[in-house]
Amino acid sequence: MENPLLLFPQLNISASKDKPYYKVMKSAIKEEPHKASKPGAKQKRNRLSLLLQKPEFHEGDHLGKPGNLTKAASVSPEEAVKWGESFDKLLSEKAGLDAFTKFLKTEFSEENIEFWIACEDYKKSKSAHELLPKAKTIFETFIQKDAPKEVNLDFHTKEVTSQSVGQPLLTTFDAAQSTVYRLMEQDSYPRFLRSDSYLNLVKGSSPGRPTLRRRSRSFTVNDFQGVRPDFTAW
């Protein structure tokens, strides 16, 4: 068999001339997808921001859907009705506190009820030795500037509380707790009572589920035993 380069000498010439060009193109092909696949820093931040806004990227992600409090709390309609009598009545019952906490998570404001609960636990301290570490934890978590779960306090209340943390008393967080309590009572509590989740509890019903279609019955060989085929229809 003859050498194909002898029959088509231009192949050899073209290959030798285009070799540098081939290397350049090969390098460009490798680099171009790499560049395209790496979004800029701004694009990454925008994409991350959009993801974080989605409910599934937050704790209690499914709590925002109507009816989930009904499933979680498992309370009678009569008990749920009592929660509407007063905010204090709601928080005094464990099921009510749980339901309200889950509701606040849907609004991304659960730091308020968590702070209130921490203050309630703080006031149950049995010795002075317990106060300092607890006070420091509460202050660093909820009150100091840029705290991970900073609550909304006015300047005067925050200042008074800050000065008391060094030598804490059982009453150290009373003013701050009262401020957050009033905020929840006047703002979050009315919205909770109007929410679909709470209304479903009062009605004692959960949102309707889609009706499942029954599968058609599968025939077996036994279904046809003793049955003579009718060939007249053919």
Structural overview:
- There is one protein chain.
- With 234 residues, the chain is mainly alpha-helical.
- It has a domain at 77-203: Regulator of G-protein Signalling 4, domain 2 (Orthogonal Bundle), CATH 1.10.167.10.
- It has twelve helices and no strands.
- Helix 8 (111-122) packs antiparallel against helix 9 and helix 8 (111-122) packs across helix 11.
- The protein is elongated and about 50 Å long.
Strands, helices and their partners?
Blueprint: H1 4-7, H2 9-37, H3 41-53, H4 68-73, H5 77-83, H6 87-92, H7 94-106, H8 111-122, H9 128-143, H10 155-165, H11 174-194, H12 196-203
Helix pairs in contact: 5-12, 8-9, 8-11, 9-10
Organism: Orthonyx spaldingii
InterPro entries: RGS, RGS_sf, RGS_subdom1/3, RGS_subdomain_2
Protein name: RGS18 protein
